[in-house]
Design goal:
The protein is mostly beta strands and about 180 residues long. It has one helix and 18 strands. The chain is globular and about 45 Å long.
Length: about 180
């Protein structure tokens, strides 16, 4: 279990890079990720019986920063669950990227069924793909959002106080177009 609070990640290959296919829990709270690679990178999907849990609360991502990048091989086994919870966050990715990057030779149907996404009050831009399948040939395909169980995301334009390469204060959100969460 890894917990990051009040952190800034900038220009790293990944916030957490998991080489083994064991269970892991990663929590980011009040954190900024700018061109930080994925929050979690898996080099295989979790084995059946193991869970990967990712929790983002008051977290902002800008640029090349997916929530999950899962690189998987050919397998007939069922993957373990990947549980993602995002609350009160802004996920503004590179237009060529996505929130979930699924990188493998075979279409990721099994992996998509293993992913559950919950939360509330989080923004994602209209040009952000929720899930992107990257094939070894270099081809990329945005996957239909209907293939995933996703809750808590609202599409909105988002404006920041300054450029992504500025100080952390430049990543304060100054304007968005989404309803506020009721209390």
């Amino acid at each position: 279990e890894l917990v990051f609070t009040d952190c800034v990640f900038r220009g790293v290959a990944a916030v957490v890079d998991c080489r083994g296919a064991t269970g892991v829990a990663v929590e980011l709270s009040n954190t900024l990720c700018v061109a930080a690679g994925p929050v979690v990178r898996l080099h295989d999907f979790p084995k059946y019986g193991r869970t990967v849990a990712i929790s983002l609360d008051h977290t902002t991502t800008r640029g090349d920063c997916a929530v999950l990048d899962c690189r998987y091989g050919r397998s007939q086994a069922e993957p373990g669950p990947i549980v993602i919870s995002v609350a009160d966050s802004a996920l503004v990715t590179n237009p060529r990227g996505g929130l979930l990057i699924l990188d493998g030779a075979q279409r990721p149907e099994k992996l998509l069924r293993a992913i559950s996404w919950s939360g509330q009050g989080s923004l994602v831009t209209s040009r952000t793909a929720v899930a992107l399948w990257r094939q070894p040939t270099g081809n990329e395909q945005a996957l239909a959002e209907e293939e995933l169980a996703i809750a808590g995301l609202v599409r909105s334009s988002v404006e920041f106080a300054g450029p992504a390469d500025g100080p952390p204060s430049a990543s304060r959100i100054t304007r968005w177009q989404a309803p506020l969460r009721s209390i």
